[in-house]
């Protein structure tokens, strides 16, 4: 009923938006992590899978960011990850790698990610 409210433009219909079931033992968390990445514009399931296959949790990716000496290296960490699927081989790329970095590290609640 609330999806029709114009003030809730982020509300989505369909099975994709229904959420993911997470069991007490943690089953389902990988799907939540993948969907979190897919919330960014122009992120396909294959691209999200490339990131979540390399870093199976947000905390592991954050740890990898912290281990890098410069902000520039952190922003580009994911850029060279191969995205499997489609007709040609492609990479995550620096633009999307930077957006994922901002998603996980920004402390500005008003920052637009896309």
UniProtKB/TrEMBL annotation:
It is found in: Nucleus. It comes from the Eukaryota. One of its GO terms (biological process) is DNA recombination. GO terms for cellular component: nucleus. Keywords: DNA damage, DNA recombination, DNA repair, Nucleus. InterPro entries: EME1/EME2_C, Mms4/EME1/EME2. Its main location: nucleus. Pfam families: EME1-MUS81_C. PANTHER family: CROSSOVER JUNCTION ENDONUCLEASE EME2-RELATED, EME1 PROTEIN. Belongs to the EME1/MMS4 family. This is EME2 endonuclease. It comes from Cirrhinus mrigala.
């Amino acid at each position: 009923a609330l999806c029709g409210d114009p003030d809730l433009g982020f509300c989505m219909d369909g099975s994709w938006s229904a959420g993911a079931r997470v069991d007490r033992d943690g089953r389902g968390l990988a799907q939540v992590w993948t969907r979190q990445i897919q919330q960014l514009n122009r992120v396909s399931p294959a691209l999200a899978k490339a990131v979540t296959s390399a870093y199976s949790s947000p905390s592991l990716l954050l740890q990898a960011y912290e281990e890098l000496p410069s902000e520039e290296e952190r922003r580009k960490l994911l850029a060279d990850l191969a995205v499997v699927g489609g007709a040609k081989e492609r990479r995550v790329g620096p633009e999307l790698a930077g957006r994922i970095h901002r998603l996980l590290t920004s402390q500005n609640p008003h920052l637009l990610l896309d």
